[in-house]
Amino acid sequence: MATIKKFEELEIWQKARLLSQKRYPTFIKPINEDFRYKDQIRGSVGSIMDNIAEGFERGSKLEFINSLTISKGEVGEYKSQLYRGLDNQYLSKEIFSELYALADEITKMITSFVSYLNKTVIKGQKFKNR
Description:
CATH topology: de novo design (two linked rop proteins)
Radius of gyration: 16 Å
CATH superfamily: 23S rRNA-intervening sequence
Distance between the termini: 23 Å
Number of domains: 1
Number of helices: 4
CATH class: Mainly Alpha
Low-confidence stretches: none
Number of strands: 0
Order of helices and strands: HHHH
Structural class: mainly alpha
Shape: elongated
Mean pLDDT: 90
CATH architecture: Up-down Bundle
């Protein structure tokens, strides 16, 4: 298995970035006029990828796992916000389904990656020589 040297190489970060790029519904009415909802959904979707990157950069397996679980929590928050958007007729069922499916895929990827990291003896760069 190749060593990943940059967070941009992580498939889960790439997928989270893709989800963040799909925030197009927040630019159209009525979402763009509901400032609180718009800011919340943009914030949580951005935090997903940001926490993955931050955890990776910390250089410690345990800190990375912690950041991944925070990121997974942000995915849950995002999914809940999608339901609010659907319930308030901000999102069509098609857009909801597309975004929810991608978010759910990220949840599964994070869960699998955390499971892998919990089983590995890798400590991370921070503790490599300790």
